[in-house]
Structures are given as structure tokens and as C-alpha cells.
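Reopening this one. Same input as before:
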Amino acid sequence: MIDACPDSAVLFFDVDGTLTSFDPDDMTDKDFSAVRPSQTVVEAFRALRDAGHKAFICTGRPLWLIADSLRALDPAGIVAMAGATLEVEGRVVHEDCFGEGVIEELARRMAAAGIEAFFETNVATFALEPAGVEQSSLIGTSVAHSTEEMRVDGSLRVGKVGLTAPSLARVANDDGFIDREFELCNTGGQNRELSPKGIDKGVGVARALAYLGREGNARTFGFGDSGNDLGMLAAVETAVAMGNAMPEVKAVADYVTDDVAHDGTVTAMQHFGLI
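Same output, byte for byte:
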């Protein structure tokens, strides 16, 4: 896909806490496939397209968890798995995964500690549970007790791992394993994400711009609220923090908009004359 109008803007939107409401301290028994942007956001995306701009979803979610209501926004593409995956026109054009040995070692440590963690692939999320536990705390995940149960078509294609800060402390072991093999991100509350080393949303933004044939980041905007948005906000020309954003996100923003409950993304698009 070559950008036919290089003077148009390219926008990157986080989902949870940015396009849709999200409480990082209340994730148990939530159906994350049921999220729905407001009608105001839906109309703003339509106005962006009519103005010739390109909007990408840029989320920590894997592709299987991109709700129909988000795809109905008709984005130019999706940066998923916190930068590890790029999908354009329904086709995955780039996908980063952990090495199988890294995931097997992480799973071994978690099993030994008896903790729950979420191993994300683009077709399913596997809840690694202690022996005897057959139900996950997150709706829609598949319970697993070993990495063998996480294989898809024979491959272990994990692109992100989610766990809590106390759980992370129990598997780190002070031996450098986490720092050596993972990018660690605070996504709010006690929630932490592990991504492949060197991968964050900023990498996904750069790949999306390259796919469009863009050089540099002129006329690019990023909208986010949590720690995994910092890479995205650093990669764009104009960084927008939601009113509900974490302090460290607001600190790097060029503009702080309204919170998600008041359609802050739309407020910012209007502020910058994009719609």
C-alpha cells in the first residue's frame, strides 16, 4: 500500500482507555471482545476517511481480540500485540514472536511458582494455570497447563505475555532472565506486559509508515493512555495523552485531551483540525 496522498495525516489509536473505556484495576470476568467505541468516535473515524487521512488501531490486543466494533471503524490497518504484529487490508504483513525456548523457560518458572499468566497469540490467548485450575479469570481465554497446549499448527507463536507485578516478581529470580529476553511494560494498576526484546508500539508505527511509503513522521499523531503507548507516542510527530492517562504518558505528550468517557480522541482531532 503506497500512500497516494503523502500530505494527509496518519493517526495511531490505542484501544483500551483511549477509544474504549478500561479499568486496569477491574479486569476479572470482563468480556474484552464486547467493547464498543461511542457513536461520536465512529462518526469521527468516518470524517477522517472523508478528509483523506489514515487511521490505524495501535493496541496491545492480539488480532483475535480486535472486536467487530473496532474493525467496523474501517481502519487503514492494525498494529497489534503492542507492536509485534502489523495487519493491513486483512493480511498480516509482519509478526514477531518469542523464541520457543524463551517461552518454555518462562512457562517453567511460572508453573514452579504456581501462578497464572496469559500467553497471547494472534489466534488465541492461553491462560497458563497452576495444576488443578481449569478456569481462567479472563473471559475468552483457553486454559493451558503447559506450552504444548499452546501450540497452533505445531508452532508456539506467542507474541506477548500478560501477568501481574507480584507474579512477575516471583519468576524474575534476579538472574537477568526478564531483562535479557523481554521488554517490560506497566499497563496500569498491577498489570504488566512482556514483549519480545526490542519490540514496542513504536516499532509497529515505524513499520506501518514504511508500508505506506512514508519517510519520517511528519503529519503523524498518536493517541494513548498507558505505559505500552510510550513507544508509539515517541514515534509520532504529535503525541496526544488522554485525560485519564498515566502520569508518565501525560509527561511526554504534546497535548492532553479529555478523558475517554468524554471522547477525548475526538476532542483532539478537532483541536488539530483533522476533522
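So the earlier flakiness isn't reproducible anymore. For the record, The radius of gyration is 18 Å.
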